[in-house]
Amino acid sequence: MPTPISLTTQRLILRPWKEADFEPFFQLNADLRVMEYFPSVLSREESDQLAFRIKVKLEEQGWGLWVATLVESDRSIGFIGLNEVTFSAPFTPAVEVGWRLAYDYWVKGMRLKGLWRLYALALKRSTCPKLSLLPLSKIRVPEMS
Q1: Is the pLDDT at 5 greater than 80, yes or no?
Q2: What is the CATH number that goes with domain 7-132?
Q3: How does 70-86 read in b/e, with b if 16+ C-beta sit within 10 Å?
Q4: Phi, psi angles (nearest 5°) of residue 83
Q5: Over the stretch 21-74, which tens digit does the pLDDT of each residue have?
Q6: Mean pLDDT of the chain
Q7: First vs last Cα of the chain: how many Å apart?
Q8: Which one of 44, 54, 82, 97 counts the least CB within 10 Å of its CB?
């Protein structure tokens, strides 16, 4: 089983999940602003189950959706990462970029810096068949960096 690595930018650390990250993850999954384009906010149980699945997948693959923490405080603000596309489409097999950040950290450039760091990693890894941004033309992306 590969060991997940940590990645660092000037303001963020992307690292493997710890159980202590589940509480702040629940807080952002319960925020109506963050979850506006999802079917609903998540209950504590749903959020913890999702965090556990993300954590296990990262541990098994060595890459995935990393916890995004602030360099100066190690405060967990969400996740940024790479996720295997599991549905069939003309561009699959592929790996998509994914993120979910606490509302207070939108429009601060952190998502973009984290994604660039992951893009550099994906280019080095032969296990990433193709990196795809799913079509955003029909999706309003509230965070502009």
Answers
A1: no
A2: 3.40.630.30
A3: eeeeeebbbbbbbbbbe
A4: -140, 130
A5: 999 999 999 999 999 989 999 999 999 999 999 999 999 988 889 999 998 888
A6: 79
A7: 35
A8: 44
Q: Are 38 and 50 in contact (CB under 8 A)?
A: no
**Mean predicted confidence (pLDDT) in 111-138:** 54
Domain boundaries, the chain: 7-132
Range in 1-5, 27-31, 32-36, 139-143 the model is least confident about: 139-143
Determine the Cα–Cα distance for residues 85 and 91; give it in Å rounded to an integer: 9
pTM of the model: 0.75
Summarize the chain as % helix, strand, coil (round to 5): 30, 20, 45
For 13, residues 6+ apart whose C-beta sits below 8 A from its C-beta are 6, 7, 68, 69, 70, 71, 74
Cis omega before residue 93 (within 30°)?
Answer: yes
Rounded to an integer, what distance in angstroms lies between the CA atom of residue 24 and that of residue 28? 6
- Chain length of the chain: 145
What backbone torsions phi and psi does residue 105 show, to the nearest 5 degrees?
A: -110, 10
